[in-house]
Amino acid sequence: MVRVDKLLVVVVVVVVVVVVAVVVVVLVVVVVVVVVVVVVVVVVVVIVEVVVVVVNSSGAMKNLVKILVVAGKFWITCSYATIYLWSAELFPTVVRNAGMGVASMSARIGGIFAPFILDLRDSWSPLPLLVFGVLSIMAGVSGLLLPETNRRSLPQTLDDVVPNQSK
Question: Which ranges carry the Major facilitator superfamily (MFS) profile domain (predicted)?
Fold first, then answer.
Protein backbone atom coordinates (compact mmCIF):
# COMPACT_ATOMS: atom_id res chain seq x y z
CA MET A 1 0.00 0.00 0.00
CA VAL A 2 2.86 2.35 0.84
CA ARG A 3 4.48 1.66 -2.52
CA VAL A 4 1.26 2.63 -4.38
CA ASP A 5 1.04 5.88 -2.38
CA LYS A 6 4.63 6.76 -3.25
CA LEU A 7 3.96 5.98 -6.91
CA LEU A 8 0.84 8.14 -6.82
CA VAL A 9 2.80 11.02 -5.27
CA VAL A 10 5.48 10.69 -7.95
CA VAL A 11 2.86 10.68 -10.71
CA VAL A 12 1.13 13.74 -9.23
CA VAL A 13 4.45 15.60 -8.92
CA VAL A 14 5.38 14.74 -12.50
CA VAL A 15 1.98 15.90 -13.76
CA VAL A 16 2.25 19.16 -11.80
CA VAL A 17 5.76 19.79 -13.13
CA VAL A 18 4.63 19.11 -16.71
CA VAL A 19 1.60 21.40 -16.33
CA VAL A 20 3.75 24.18 -14.86
CA ALA A 21 6.29 23.75 -17.67
CA VAL A 22 3.54 23.92 -20.30
CA VAL A 23 2.08 27.05 -18.68
CA VAL A 24 5.51 28.69 -18.59
CA VAL A 25 6.15 27.83 -22.24
CA VAL A 26 2.73 29.20 -23.24
CA LEU A 27 3.36 32.41 -21.29
CA VAL A 28 6.78 32.82 -22.90
CA VAL A 29 5.27 32.29 -26.35
CA VAL A 30 2.52 34.83 -25.62
CA VAL A 31 5.07 37.39 -24.41
CA VAL A 32 7.24 36.82 -27.48
CA VAL A 33 4.22 37.19 -29.79
CA VAL A 34 3.15 40.40 -28.04
CA VAL A 35 6.67 41.82 -28.29
CA VAL A 36 6.89 40.91 -31.98
CA VAL A 37 3.50 42.51 -32.68
CA VAL A 38 4.49 45.69 -30.83
CA VAL A 39 7.79 45.87 -32.72
CA VAL A 40 6.03 45.32 -36.06
CA VAL A 41 3.47 48.02 -35.29
CA VAL A 42 6.19 50.48 -34.28
CA VAL A 43 8.20 49.70 -37.42
CA VAL A 44 5.10 50.12 -39.62
CA VAL A 45 4.24 53.45 -37.98
CA VAL A 46 7.82 54.69 -38.45
CA ILE A 47 7.86 53.57 -42.09
CA VAL A 48 4.50 55.24 -42.75
CA GLU A 49 5.71 58.44 -41.12
CA VAL A 50 8.91 58.45 -43.19
CA VAL A 51 6.96 57.77 -46.39
CA VAL A 52 4.53 60.57 -45.55
CA VAL A 53 7.37 63.03 -44.93
CA VAL A 54 9.20 62.03 -48.12
CA VAL A 55 6.07 62.04 -50.27
CA ASN A 56 4.80 65.31 -48.80
CA SER A 57 8.12 66.97 -49.55
CA SER A 58 7.89 65.91 -53.20
CA GLY A 59 4.21 66.82 -53.56
CA ALA A 60 3.28 63.33 -54.77
CA MET A 61 1.14 62.40 -51.74
CA LYS A 62 -2.15 62.92 -53.57
CA ASN A 63 -1.10 60.66 -56.43
CA LEU A 64 0.10 57.97 -54.04
CA VAL A 65 -3.18 58.09 -52.13
CA LYS A 66 -5.16 57.84 -55.39
CA ILE A 67 -3.15 54.81 -56.48
CA LEU A 68 -3.62 53.11 -53.11
CA VAL A 69 -7.35 53.89 -53.09
CA VAL A 70 -7.84 52.37 -56.56
CA ALA A 71 -5.79 49.31 -55.60
CA GLY A 72 -7.74 48.99 -52.35
CA LYS A 73 -11.07 49.22 -54.17
CA PHE A 74 -9.92 46.51 -56.58
CA TRP A 75 -9.05 44.12 -53.74
CA ILE A 76 -12.27 44.95 -51.86
CA THR A 77 -14.27 44.02 -54.95
CA CYS A 78 -12.33 40.76 -55.22
CA SER A 79 -12.97 39.98 -51.56
CA TYR A 80 -16.73 40.39 -51.97
CA ALA A 81 -16.65 37.72 -54.68
CA THR A 82 -14.64 35.34 -52.51
CA ILE A 83 -17.09 35.72 -49.62
CA TYR A 84 -19.75 34.03 -51.70
CA LEU A 85 -17.40 31.33 -52.99
CA TRP A 86 -16.04 30.40 -49.57
CA SER A 87 -19.45 30.56 -47.93
CA ALA A 88 -20.88 28.16 -50.48
CA GLU A 89 -18.01 25.72 -49.94
CA LEU A 90 -17.48 25.90 -46.19
CA PHE A 91 -21.03 25.95 -44.80
CA PRO A 92 -23.05 22.73 -44.78
CA THR A 93 -26.10 22.67 -47.03
CA VAL A 94 -28.60 22.99 -44.17
CA VAL A 95 -27.12 26.28 -42.90
CA ARG A 96 -25.61 27.64 -46.10
CA ASN A 97 -28.14 30.46 -46.55
CA ALA A 98 -27.72 31.65 -42.97
CA GLY A 99 -23.93 31.41 -43.23
CA MET A 100 -23.85 33.36 -46.48
CA GLY A 101 -26.13 35.97 -44.91
CA VAL A 102 -23.81 36.39 -41.93
CA ALA A 103 -20.75 36.62 -44.20
CA SER A 104 -22.45 39.22 -46.40
CA MET A 105 -23.65 41.18 -43.37
CA SER A 106 -20.12 41.21 -41.94
CA ALA A 107 -18.80 42.62 -45.19
CA ARG A 108 -21.48 45.31 -45.24
CA ILE A 109 -20.71 46.32 -41.64
CA GLY A 110 -17.19 47.17 -42.79
CA GLY A 111 -18.70 49.42 -45.44
CA ILE A 112 -20.84 51.14 -42.83
CA PHE A 113 -17.89 51.98 -40.57
CA ALA A 114 -15.47 52.99 -43.34
CA PRO A 115 -16.58 56.66 -43.49
CA PHE A 116 -16.11 57.00 -39.74
CA ILE A 117 -12.55 55.69 -39.97
CA LEU A 118 -11.80 58.47 -42.45
CA ASP A 119 -12.50 60.98 -39.65
CA LEU A 120 -9.37 59.67 -37.92
CA ARG A 121 -7.27 61.74 -40.33
CA ASP A 122 -8.07 64.78 -38.17
CA SER A 123 -5.79 63.37 -35.47
CA TRP A 124 -3.06 62.03 -37.81
CA SER A 125 -3.40 62.17 -41.58
CA PRO A 126 -2.03 58.68 -42.45
CA LEU A 127 -4.03 56.98 -39.67
CA PRO A 128 -7.03 55.96 -41.85
CA LEU A 129 -4.70 54.42 -44.42
CA LEU A 130 -2.87 52.59 -41.67
CA VAL A 131 -6.13 51.30 -40.15
CA PHE A 132 -7.44 50.12 -43.52
CA GLY A 133 -4.11 48.51 -44.36
CA VAL A 134 -3.77 46.67 -41.05
CA LEU A 135 -7.39 45.45 -41.19
CA SER A 136 -6.86 44.26 -44.77
CA ILE A 137 -3.73 42.35 -43.82
CA MET A 138 -5.54 40.78 -40.85
CA ALA A 139 -8.40 39.73 -43.15
CA GLY A 140 -5.96 38.22 -45.62
CA VAL A 141 -4.15 36.26 -42.92
CA SER A 142 -7.43 35.01 -41.46
CA GLY A 143 -8.42 33.86 -44.95
CA LEU A 144 -5.30 31.72 -45.03
CA LEU A 145 -6.58 29.89 -41.94
CA LEU A 146 -9.69 28.62 -43.75
CA PRO A 147 -9.60 24.92 -44.60
CA GLU A 148 -8.64 23.80 -48.08
CA THR A 149 -11.56 22.22 -49.95
CA ASN A 150 -9.82 21.15 -53.15
CA ARG A 151 -10.58 17.48 -53.96
CA ARG A 152 -12.41 16.98 -50.67
CA SER A 153 -16.03 16.17 -50.04
CA LEU A 154 -17.96 19.21 -48.85
CA PRO A 155 -20.09 19.05 -45.69
CA GLN A 156 -23.78 18.37 -46.29
CA THR A 157 -25.01 18.30 -42.68
CA LEU A 158 -23.88 19.79 -39.39
CA ASP A 159 -22.71 16.33 -38.29
CA ASP A 160 -20.24 16.38 -41.20
CA VAL A 161 -18.66 19.48 -39.68
CA VAL A 162 -18.94 18.66 -35.97
CA PRO A 163 -19.61 14.98 -35.30
CA ASN A 164 -22.39 14.31 -32.82
CA GLN A 165 -20.86 13.91 -29.38
CA SER A 166 -23.76 11.89 -27.96
CA LYS A 167 -23.13 8.82 -30.14
Answer: 1-151
pLDDT digits (tens, 9 = 90+) for 3-37: 667 777 878 888 888 888 888 877 777 777 777 77
Taking alpha carbons only, the member of 13, 151, 164, 147 closest to residue 86 is 147
Is 167 contained in some domain?
no
Which is nearest to 126 in space by CA: 59, 44, 57, 67?
Answer: 44
Note whether residue 89 is domain-resident.
yes
Whether 102 is covered by a domain: the verdict is yes
What is the Cα–Cα distance from 129 to 120, expressed in whole angstroms? 10
- Residue-wise pLDDT tens digits, 116-149: 888 888 888 888 888 888 888 888 888 888 888 8
Residues present in the chain in total: 167
